[in-house]
Predict the 3D structure of the following.
Amino acid sequence: MSSTNSNSDTQLTIGERAFSAAGAAFISAIIVNPLDVAKTRLQAQAAGVPYQGVCGMASFQTNSVTFIHSMLHDIGCSSGRNNHYKGTLDVFYKVIRQEGFTRLWRGTGASLALSVPTVGIYMPCYDIFRNMMEEFTTQNAPTLTPYVPLVAGSAARSLACISCYPVELARTRMQAFRLTQRGKPPGVWKTLHGVIHPVDGTSILHSFHRYRFWWTGLGAQLSRDVPFSAICWSTLEPIRKSILDLVGDGATVATVLGANFSAGFVAGTLASAATCPLDVAKTRRQIEKDPERALKMTTRTTLIAIWRDGGFRGLYTGVGPRIGRAGPSVGIVVSFYEFVKYALHHRHQTSS
């Protein structure tokens, strides 16, 4: 890393790091959410979630429209193949046509509620872990220094993932399932309540058991996110360092943004492609509606089931929108985060 970057790392407080990360997460979540919806819909469809146009609508309760609704149901079901998603652009087209343009941002509230605290924990912890480990390895084991980003990224991501996982579960369910009735779609809290509602029981032990369902699929999430972070940071740091070293001490706002966005884009693209099967397994576990069955599912058995049903193609369902989302997302988060750190660092220098 360049001296400028290192200095800004050591002089910023945890609060300033968290502010930088939260702002980056806010911008990224809004920009890439439609691609996240497309990826989740394609993976949920492969897992058996039906997207059959009017077939997915709930039945009306009044007798006066039962016959009409029955006719619409039959017509919709007979043309079900026309509502089968064929790819990312097809998801966009059919979601806009059948559910409305704003549905492409379904789950954005959950994405913000998730990404702001997650990235607010993740990025500052990565900085802190990396700086501590680099200082230790440089003095005691220089040969291990190149592996610091891998270990620091994995540790920071694990901490952030475990802390904020229930909101990730809610976001996936909000994006995967279509509206089943008229009116306002359920929010984060209502979605989470629906996860634990099917389990009855009044004892304290049973109530505690119910809330375990909020961490359904955590193993799959960690199995995806830890390798993703390890690959991402191991790729990002050398690329970023090479670009910043070419600039030297003449780094400007434009070069800081460019170096970090380029490195983040390449790293995010490679990491998302490599971990796509784990993302498919995570989605399938999170959308499982039977709570008891969801708890018994493991990443290994889910991957085997996906391979048995769809082979290699099944393991890479939604890889297009996933890569299209991850590259820009990582680039935006890292470049905005480092830009704010750069600005705060220069403000400290000016004030002192």
